[in-house]
Amino acid sequence: MDADPASRSGKSVGRTGDIERFEVEAINAAETRTLYSARTQIYPKRVQGVFRKLKWFILAATLGLYYLLPWVRWPRGVNEPDQAILVDFAGRRFYFFFIEIWPDELYYLTGLLVIAAMGIFLSSALFGRVWCGYSCPQTVWTDLFVAVERFIEGDRNKRIKLDRAPWSFDKIRKKTAKHLIWILIGMATGGAWILYFHDAPTIARDFLRGEAPFTAYFFFALLTLTTYIFAGSLREQVCTYMCPWPRIQAALTDEETLEVTYKKDRGEPRGAHKKGDSWDGRGDCVSCRACVVACPMGIDIRDGAQLECINCALCIDACDEIMVKVGRPTGLIAYDTDANMARREAGSAPTIKIFRPRVFVYAGALLLTAFVMVAAMSSRATMNVNVLRDRSLPFVMLSDGSVRNAYTVKIVNRDNVERIFQIDVDGPEGMAVTAIGEKPVENALEVAAAGDAVRSLRMFITMTPEALGSASMPVTISVSDIETGEEAVNSTVFLSGDR
Amino acid sequence: MADQDIDEHSGVETTGHEWDGIKELNNPLPRWWLIVFYISVIWAVGYWVLMPAWPGISGYTKGLRDHSERANVAADIAALDEARAEATQRLINAPSMQAIENDPGLQQFALAAGRSLFGDNCATCHGSGGQGFPGYPNLNDDAWIWGGALEDIKTTIAYGRRSDHPETTNTIMMAYGRDGLLPADDVSDLTNYVLSLSGQDHDAAAAQRAPQIFASQCAVCHGADGSGDRAQGAPNLTDAIWLFGGDRATIYETIWNGRAGVMPAWEGRLSEAEITALAVYVHSLGGGE
Q1: Are the beta carbons of A400 and B102 separated by less than 8 Å?
Q2: Could you give the ipTM of this predicted complex?
């Protein structure tokens, strides 16, 4: 454990039979963990297998979505942007395919965040840190950056050698090429980000011409820089030191959670194994440390669950490859539960318990939020009416002793076509309704509201002294679309003071 | 220094200052602090060159960037005017004031502009909601001394009333008592008569003595029946609304001292478009005569 730094970063120390063995200690291990230590470079070795393939697929899918989604068009008609996903700060709208959210409906975003939180709670309870291991942007971009690094500098051993070698033309060439490609990926990341906030083709052209707004260049530079630094040099440090999520996660998992697990009961006692030797009286772990050199977090999974482990499952692939070679069943490292390890040691059969109280709680909360969201979205009004009674002068007495109240009626037309609305005022007997610029007939009037806009109307209710009743009388202002019949009812009052 | 005083515990040189046997160590400044300090010095020099910095006798160093917050504000205001130019032009070019109110988009622009202009210029006297104060008309009711139609309101705002504008109106209510035009008894009788016009409690015997005085002195402006005359800004005395107050003491005071409330002219202080917007806003407060 107290190996000198040179051997800690490790190298191949020869082969036993078919198996390459590594003289290497985990860079991050509980015993060597200090409150602060300088970063030691980790050189994850390439692995092949089911989980590696799955990770490539998820990487392509998530990055593909991120880079290409802003270019997807979604026709909405005249005067509306045709971008499928658009956060339009200037126009104060959020477009998501067929959904258009106004600023006053931002609570839908809260619902979305609750769903996201419950989704990640549920997945954590079931499968541990699957979010971290497969789809977290930090993991995905780091994976891509490591792939670039491997493509240019070679696999683990070559990279270690290159880093130790003195500066040469070849080293400068490789390092320059790597950082250049990293920066290009970072620029693509920053470049794609700003597309979500403007019409993509327009902002792309303005951006290249130097005519885009300052914020576009700022966020482009910010995301280029963070991508380059987080995925290029910080890597596992982001997960271990910067991200709060791993600490929260520990509270969401339990002993029945499926996590990337080294099956101690099967692996121990570990030790080198020569071909032809008996497997009796020993474990299946051949101490080849393939899992250690494959780990992008620099840990030894055989030490058990630890805070650095992002459950990326690359050690499963690495170990399975070895198990096949030594002729033992795969799955020495696999998705398994702590409870199963205890069960096997106690001699009973392992089992997967999915239906646990916490799973029901998380799934229930998730379904409930999703249901509320769907219900709210599908019954969403295409119009809103706000009636604002004048308050700086609650009522005014007129020359004949009548009392008048003023109201501002705001009709929000969320549709993108002009609509005609009928306003009906229902109030105390004897009232007279007037409006600025309109002529109400029998306390009702029709007004037009332009598409995707707010129509504001100033309205007055006057009551003669004889008709006046109590100091406060209820008034109902209902607004309905004369074509669809969609109606919004607002309650307000007519005030006349004590008399 | 020839004889350095080295502190034996820390091995650091002291400054030689000593208080009650305690010596001050001469530690170097922290490196980060020094770096920040040097950067600040370089920054300051760059700032002197680029930005306005040093005061002089008759001005200040302008800097290479020719930066001026005043110019920035002026540019921002110009940009805002530019952005509003189209709507502003439509306000000015509207065929009539009524046409503005009939166009929901233009009306909304005028109301928004009018609301802020009202807060800046009018609310001091007329109140934030236009509710008025004694002597300053309530703009929400239907008693318009000089007329409540859009054009009337615009005229009042532009030229003022009893203002220093050449187009303004200058009729006043004379001080009948103070200037000796009427004896105190007649003023008292008139007060009762005016109270009777709006149906308030009054001394009927005193009111009986006043019609002739009213006809000869007051009817010219307020009309034979006391219903007022907007052309002269003479308020209606028969309704429930009183500019200065409708109680006996205030009416007596009004007749005795006269009244000549002043509304300043806004032409020249506000632009044509601003006055139009204000008129539309005030009209919307008052129920739209």
Answers
A1: no
A2: 0.75
